[in-house]
Predict the structure.
Amino acid sequence: MHEYIKGGISLKKIFAAAICIVLLASFALLSGRAENNPPKGAASDSTAIHVDVDIGERFFMEQMNDIFLNINDYLGKVIKFEGAFGIFESRGSTFYSVFRPGPACCADDVTIGLNVIWDGEYPKNEEWVEAIGVLESYKVNEFNAYRLNLSSLTVIPKQ
């Protein structure tokens, strides 16, 4: 199999660009989310939670991409991963995410992760967290969107 297609563009770059487009589209759809108010509460103990998919450090981007490409295989599954907590404002709505910077031409071009919803108190923007929750689908206007409904959100030291 050829690593480069005609014109010298690597397949890895095309793959990374596809991930970026999926995430940007997801964030754009979620900007109309009705749940604007952050819930209050405390983080739970993650040691007692059954996890179906533990996204590790080494293959983070590949596993996230597999989730977006095969979303139906992951809906209803408990997913665990670490990343920066993000608070995003768009069109008067606030939404929350756990993400990592992705590969792109510039430092802050793209993020890779999942939007989250949580019954507890949200951490500060850009704190490193461990997130555990069930991947679910919900409607934003007439579009399907996806988020992790968290059972645990814990601030941890960045690895």
Summary: Confidence is low (pLDDT under 50) at residues 1-5, 20-25, 27-43. The chain has one domain: 11-155.
